Amino acid sequence: MRNESILVVDDEAGILIMLENLLRKEGYTRITKAGSAAEALMAVRTTLFDMIVLDVMLPDMDGFSLCTEIRKTITTPILFLTARSSDMDKLQGLFLGGDDYVTKPFNPLEVVARIQAHLRRSALYASDVVSVESVYQYDTFTLNWTTGQLIVGNVDTPCPAKELELLLYFCKHPNRVFTAQQLYEQVWGTMVHGDEKTVVIHISRLRKKLEVNPTNPKLIVTLRGIGYKFVPFTGG
Fold first, then answer.
1. Are 198 and 92 part of one and the same domain?
2. What was the pLDDT predicted at 82?
C-alpha cells in the first residue's frame, strides 16, 4: 500500500472512476475525486495532497483559474488533463503553475505513469538530505531544501514544487550544460519525448523569480542549440 494522497479533478465520472481503479491497482488508496472546481477547492482546504490531477474543462471554473487559486496556498505538483491541444493552451497552464500536462484523449496508463513519476521524484528529493547539501546560498538567493524555501533578496519567495526541484538540480550541478530533454528526464522522472516546453516554461518562471533582468539571464543561461547552464554567483 502507498501512503501518498492524490486528488483527481474531472467532470467526467467515467474518467474519475477509471483513474481511481488504475491507481488502486498500483497500490494507491488515498484517492479523492472531485467533479467540479468547488469540490476541488473544498478538498484542498481540508486535505494535504501529494499530487493533483486537474482537468481544464470544468463546469463551474476552468482548470487554469482553479490552478491559480490552488497555487495561492500550496505547492503540490499539478498535472493538467486538457482537451486543448494547442501550444498556447499548454503553455498557459504551465505559466499559471502547472507542473506537467497530458492531452486528451490520453492513454490512461501514461497518466498513471506520470503520476507515479512525480510522486517518486518528490519522495526522492524529500529523502535526499544526506547526499546533498540542505542549503545552497548565493549572492542573490538562498535555496533551503530542508524547509522548502526560496529566499530571493531576503524575501521568502513562494515556489511550486517542480520549480524547486529544477532549481535544486541546477544547484547540484553548477556550470554543467543540460538539454531540455535531459532536465525533463531527471526532474520530472519520465522519458517522454516532446516535453521540452514544460522545461522551458519552468525555467522562465524561475528566471522571473531569480534574475534581475529575466530577458537577459545571468544565472540560468541559454546556450542556443545546446541547452541550459546554471552559473552561480557566490561572491566577488
1. no
2. 81
